[in-house]
């Protein structure tokens, strides 16, 4: 687990951050430095590690690469290939449950790439009545619909909680069409596009959308405090 920069306001939103495939909490925290700086008046970010280790070549030893689930044997994953094999998913749900117990409560949850799809699963479970989750909102960056048969039931009911979906026009890892397909499983999703590739954008146009999206929940927290 890796903490984010904390502001001084008592009404900061607390957001749980779910990294992408082949990342870890520390790496994702570093890659979202611009986002944390842009939103320092709105939110505090808490980063967690996925429980599943990805084998890496010897020359990459020392850089821990993690994933939320595997779609192929031998600890492999491919977002574009249909699969009936799923390993590590249940353990990942439990990691998020444990993070809520240890570091929560959280106002929202943010995920990137495979982590965004994992966040989509959590949204679905919450909307299906799973009392372990009680997020007010979710932000999904470069998310996609899982084509793993194990996750089919998680797309049977639309997600009604507020969500913001972020995707890049030139993303070659998760093409924007895959992110747009995921939108159909959410009710009234908000979206923000950027001209770049596979990363979490935080330039002025995206910053404005993030702040507008989060301010609704900041105001709610102020009213309840």
Could you describe the 3D structure shown?
- This protein has 225 residues and is an alpha/beta fold.
- Helix content is 32%, strand content 17%.
- The chain is built from six helices and nine strands.
- Strands 1-3-2-6-7-8-9 form a seven-stranded mixed sheet, with helices on both faces.
- The protein is globular.
- 41% of the residues are buried.
Mean pLDDT: 93
The N- to C-terminal Cα distance equals 27 Å
Percent helix, as a range, is 25-40%
Give the strand content. Answer: 15-25%
Largest sheet: 7 strands, mixed
Number of helices: 6
Low-pLDDT parts are 4-8
Strand neighbour order, sheet with most strands: 1-3-2-6-7-8-9
Fold topology:
Blueprint: E1 2-3, E2 13-18, H1 25-31, H2 33-38, E3 43-48, E4 52-53, E5 66-67, H3 89-103, E6 108-112, H4 114-127, E7 137-141, E8 163-168, H5 176-183, E9 190-194, H6 204-224
Parallel strand pairs: 2-3, 2-6, 6-7, 7-8, 8-9
Antiparallel strand pairs: 1-3, 4-5
């Amino acid at each position: 687990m890796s903490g984010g920069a904390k502001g001084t306001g008592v009404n900061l939103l607390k957001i749980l951050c779910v990294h992408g495939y082949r990342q870890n909490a520390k790496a994702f925290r570093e890659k979202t430095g611009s986002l944390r700086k842009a939103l320092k008046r709105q939110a505090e970010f808490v980063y967690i590690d996925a429980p599943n280790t990805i084998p890496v070549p010897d020359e990459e030893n020392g850089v821990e690469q993690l994933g939320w689930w595997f779609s192929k044997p031998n600890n492999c994953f491919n977002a574009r290939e249909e699969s009936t094999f799923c390993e590590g998913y249940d353990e990942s749900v439990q990691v998020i449950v444990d993070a809520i117990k240890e570091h929560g409560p959280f106002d929202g949850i943010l995920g990137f790439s495979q982590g965004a799809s994992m966040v989509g699963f959590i949204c679905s479970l919450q909307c299906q009545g799973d009392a372990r989750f009680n997020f007010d909102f979710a932000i999904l960056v470069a998310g996609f619909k899982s084509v793993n048969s194990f996750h089919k039931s998680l797309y049977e009911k639309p997600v009604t909680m507020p969500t913001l979906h972020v995707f890049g026009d030139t993303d070659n890892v998760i093409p924007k069409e895959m992110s747009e397909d995921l939108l159909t499983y959410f009710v009234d999703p908000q979206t923000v596009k950027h001209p770049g590739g596979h990363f979490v954008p935080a330039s002025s146009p995206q910053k404005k959308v993030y702040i507008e999206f989060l301010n609704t929940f900041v105001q709610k927290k102020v009213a309840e405090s």
